[in-house]
Amino acid sequence: MVRALARVALTLVLLASLTGLVWTARDVLRTPALQPLVARSAEGIRAASNLMMAAEATPENVTARLRTLLAETPRNWLAIAAVEGVAERRAIALPADLAAARQAAWDEDHSWSATAGKCAACAIDAASCELSAVLICQAPMVLTPLGDIAGVGSESWHYLTGAQVDRLNLGLSLAGLGATALVLVSGGSSVSVKLGAGTLRLAHRMGLVSERLGRFVLHSVEAGIDWARLPAARGRDDLIALVDPRVLRPLAETLDDLGRIGARLSPTETLHLLRYIDGPADARRMARASEALGERTVGRLELLGKSRFLRATLRFSAHALGLIAGLFGLIWAGGTLIAHALGHAALRRQRRWARARQRT
Q1: How many independent structural domains does the chain possess?
Q2: Which residues cross the membrane (predicted)?
Q3: Of 115, 200, 238, 275, which is most buried, counting CB atoms within 10 Å of its CB?
């Protein structure tokens, strides 16, 4: 009697777990908004990244990362300073030989002649800019409305002279000019969209845009701009009219995310983060992280790496946890039921064997 009741109870548990699992999976499949991973709050991002840094920001790892950065050509002094900031906040003393190598590298890269040469080359060609020089030599022009106008002007000249037109540069310039229209469909602000467009345009000229992000932007501007009417445009209003805000909505949202990063971090820090952004999802998560972490963003990104750093911006949703709980409940109930059935079968077999021996 007891065994029969146990089997019934286990069967009911199994059916309940299976029903819950199927019900939750149905909700997830039928409702796109019910994603298994959802965004953490700013406080959650800080707490999650703090836990990661507690394990990763050891003296050995900080020292090794600094040695790697100092060995790069050209050296990224923004990243070096960010990792040094982590060491300072955690009271990590750097080895004497590393400190000496760092000072020698600084003296080599920041002599008067080296700085003047870098800035002159950067002012002429953004592709030769280093992050340490771009703020002085390029950003004052590119990250303003004048940069949008200059971008349209330069690419229009290329078109008139038969030279190759950089559609990505021209498209981002038009997006910057038409930021107000894009805001109506993206839900962001014209300031952040303009800032994001200017930053992305400068990053493109510097060669910092990843291949995947570049393909996304190029596809967006090719589909969302009326290129056939471009030769007939005679003024700013005509240029803005070429932009289709609804088609460019995904790009506008990405530009808004980049603008949010730029509003929280310096232009050079924002350009540095662009190296790690491969598409709209990365831009959205990087924006949340930069808003939550502020000046600690770059240092944590350098030590944790992109994958772990962005992982701190997400958590399992309640539906995902319910699905996982249902799955484990199903496995446990099924396993217990099978074990009980096998045990009962073994016990009956043993009883038959015992009765057979008594007869003999």
Answers
A1: 2
A2: 320-347
A3: 200
